[in-house]
Design a protein that fits this description.
Radius of gyration of chain A: 21 Å
CATH architecture of chain B: Orthogonal Bundle
Structural class of chain B: mainly alpha
Oligomer: heterodimer
CATH class of chain B: Mainly Alpha
Distance between the termini of chain B: 42 Å
Strand content of chain B: under 5%
Low-confidence stretches of chain A: none
Largest sheet of chain B: 2 strands, antiparallel
Number of domains of chain A: 1
CATH architecture of chain A: Orthogonal Bundle
Low-confidence stretches of chain B: none
Strand order of the largest sheet of chain B: 1-2
Mean pLDDT of chain A: 90
Number of helices of chain B: 12
Number of domains of chain B: 1
Amino acid sequence: MKPVSDRALWIFAAAALALPLIADGNKFLAFVLGMTYISLLWATGMNLMYGYVGLMPLMFAGVAGIAGYAVVHLTRELGWSFWVAMPVATLMAAIAGVALGLPSLRLKGFYFTLCSLVIQTVLTLAFIFFPTYTNGDTGINQIAPPDWFGGRLSGLGLELMIALFTVAGILICAWIARSPLGQRFVAIREDDILAEAIGIRVVRCKIIAFFIVSLYAGVGGCFYSVYIGFVSPRAFDVLVSMNIWLFVAFGGRGTIAGPIIGTAILAPIPFLLQDLQAFKDILSGVLIIVVTLLMPGGIYGAWLARRRRVQQAGVDSARVQESRV
Amino acid sequence: MTDAQILILMSTLSTGLILGAIFALVAAGVTIVYGCVWLPNASNGQFFLLASLAAWTFTASFGWTSAAAAVGVLVLGTALAYLLEWTLIRRLYDTPNRNVAYFVVTLGLTQIMTGIFSLTYAKWSDQFTLPPIVEGITMFGPFPMPNNRLFVMGVSLLVLVLLFVLLRYHPYGRALRAVFQNREAAALRGVNVRAIYRLSFVLGSVIIFLGGILFALAYSYDLTVAWTMSITAFAIMIIGGPGSVVGALVIGMTFGFTQAIVSIFASPTAATFSYLGAMLLILLFRPSGLFKR
């Protein structure tokens, strides 16, 4: 997998930060853009786990939910500033993510996925059955936007802030992917026994991965609750985890560009469908099957493979030419 | 013992037996497919619901008797299972680590079917019931037991026994167990592995469909049963040992009685919670389950 070039990253960062300014005129467009950015932040975290470490954490949305609910509780009930509450809530989510991930460290493949699905289900049930913090099935509405020097940060300002965090998240992910840690992750993905044999501490790497990924989930969860202004157990259930997974798998796992492409294409769809939410489930179900059966590398992966073939074809035909001469 | 105590005891016993038999049936359907094809069917709850809803449509909309509806659903279900095998399932037969891919594919199927159900049946009714196949009531002392439920219990236990005999003594069952144990060696001995895969998937799916019909005959149900059933069947499979029909039977019965007893004191959700906890513990400490294949 060719690492993405620095120039492409900076161009993307600039474009991503400029987009909210352009979309600002149209409220609906701006909102879809903001939600896409939050999804992108989540997808980047999911990609770190699924694309680089090779584990499929279906409890991702649940961990995001912990941060989402925590930030609401801290700002509403205890009166904290959002900018204090967010790091605390994110850290809580990260610790919870590591604690929930610990038992499944020994598992891999299907058993890991199943275990994470069970944990996600327990978290969803917990969100429903602990109404003191979550207000149960009804959810919490009218969550105020974050405070900002006496005023409130909403609209364009909040979208820019989300874009900033998302871009930072992607840059950090790209940096991790190139670092020795990222290479260890890839080694674990390819063969964890072999990785252990060449001296990589697999368990420690996985714990670090859990921590980082839960940070991504947590930051996304905090922004989600203040941006939408409404949280309910449905916002953090297993379907959300599957959706985020689909963004990564559809775009191309284990690449920086893949999740960006996947999220940009898929995340806006539910907002365009509006009243037809059931169709969204059907559509994403179909896409999940199509991606798994036909495009295991996702769009970007397929494109990379094709480009490699085309380039290789040129080299091969040149060799044939030489051997004939 | 007073009459009231006998009543409670008998009702717990009968609920436990019926639920346990149906749990065991569905879990057997899931576990056979997982043991053989390496396909963890996450959409088993939706299959289950599909069969019971189809039977409801046949009886409520077309005016068929429950027996005719059951036969119709089983025929259609067999066709559907072959169709699924032909379009989706066979494409991954030769993939390494295909259980994750299959898990994801069946989660996709779950989403599709959930979407379809919420667009259709959810708008038509909240509760679904089938007319009984067998009329009348048998009295066990002071306890009245509808013959229909006795019939459901009998059929599910009979199918479980047949399944066990099939896997143990029939040539197909031997071939299936051979593929369980070592696919390459079975192929070398002349077993058509792909045909066995196909048969197992269809057999497992039809058993799940049958479980759905039987459940619909015994109880009235709503759309959330799919979710509960998925969790329960997976928990039974993991705890009983993937691929073990005996494990499915024993653990399924245990869960049925747990559910019946817990439902006296608390909500059935508490039972679901306990299954999740038990599954988690088994996953952590003994991923191969309690029973051998």
